[in-house]
Amino acid sequence: MQDYVHVRDNIAGETVELWHHVLGCSAWLKVVRNTVTHEVKDVSLAQDAGS
Amino acid sequence: LDGNSEFYSHSLKLWEGLEQELNYNVMMSQRGQVLLAHSDGQMDAFARRGNAMRMQGDDAELFDRQGIRKLLPYLNHEDPRFPIYGGLMQWRAGTARHDAVAWGYARGADQRGVDIIQNCEVTGFRIEQGQIKGVETSRGYIGAGKVGMCAAGRSSQVAQMAGLRLPIESHVLQAFVSEGLKPILPSVVSFGMGHFYISQSDKGGLVFGGDLDGYNSYAQRGNLPMQEHVMEAGMALMPMIGKARVLRSWGGIMDMSMDGSPIIDKTPVAGLFFNGGWCYGGFKAVPASGHAFAHLLGTGNHSEHASKFLLNRFETGALLDEEGTGAQPNLH
Lengths: 51, 332
Description:
B: alpha+beta, eight-stranded mixed β-sheet, about 25% strand, globular
C-alpha cells in the first residue's frame, strides 16, 4: 500500500508512462520517454498496448 | 502545520545569526515578503495564518487594499480576474545571496575541521548485515560508522545504491532574471493565484519564477510553455515589467516528496541517515536542516525542531501535507 501510493522508482533515463490527452481526444497514451533528455521514443494508444 | 512551522521558525532565527557565526557576508536582507490575497475568503485565511505565526513568536502583518496600494503602487490592483484585496507581510522574511551562503558554509566547515572532497562521486555503499560500513567513491573507499546522505535532486539515485526506494519524484523548476534595473521592488512579492513570485537582487536584476513544469524530469532545463505562463502571470501582476528584458533562465531539479514536506531521518540501513525531499523550500531551511541533521547523526535522536520529518509517515499516514493535495508531487 505504502509502496503503491508513495514510493517511486524515480528513474533517470528511459521510463514508460501513461499520459492522458485531457484537453483533446481524452485518449490514454503509453509513452516511452527519457527523463534526462526529454526525448520521446515511442507513443502508442494504451488500449492497443494491452497494459 | 505543526511539525513544519516550528522548524522554519527555528531556521529563520538561525539565519539571523548566520553571518556573525560564519563571519561571512551572505547578503542576508530581511526586506519582507508579502503574499497577495484576491478574495475575502483568502483575506480571512491570511488573517488566521498571520495570527498563527504571531502566536508562535514570529511576525506577520495583514495589509488591506489601501495598505498594499501604498506599499506597491505599481501592481495591477484592479485585475478583473485577481483584483488585489490585501496581503500578508512577514517583515523578517527576505533574501540572501545563495553563492555566498555556500561559500560561507564551506569556509566555516573547513575551519571547524570538516574535509570537503570536491570532484568525487559516490559510486556505492558498503553495507554488511544491514549495517553501513562506508562509502565507495570515484577516488577510493571511505570507511565510516555513520553516513549522512544529502543529495538534493538526485536523492533517489543515491538511495538506490543502498537498496532503498524513496517517496520522492524529481521535477524541474525554472527561474528567471532580468537585466539590472534601478531599485524598484522593496520586498519579495508572491502572487500565489498566478503561480508567480518576484524580488529584486542587489545587482538590480528582477528575480522571478513560477511553478514546476508539471512532469518528472532530470533535464535541468525548462520548457517554453511554463516560461510563457510565468511571463503572462508577471505581466498580469506588474505590467511595467514588460519593458524589462529577460537576461537568462534556468531549470533546476527538485526532490519533490509525496506530501510536500522534507525528510530528516534514519533509514532501514543502520548507520545510514537521510536528509532530502525539500521540494522547492530548501533554501530557507538551510541552517535548521543542517542543525537538525547534525543533531540526528551526532546523538541518534531527532532534534526537537524536526521531530516529524520521518520516513515512516508515509506508512502511518501522518503526513505533513500543507496543500492537502495528496501524493501528487507536481501539485505541492
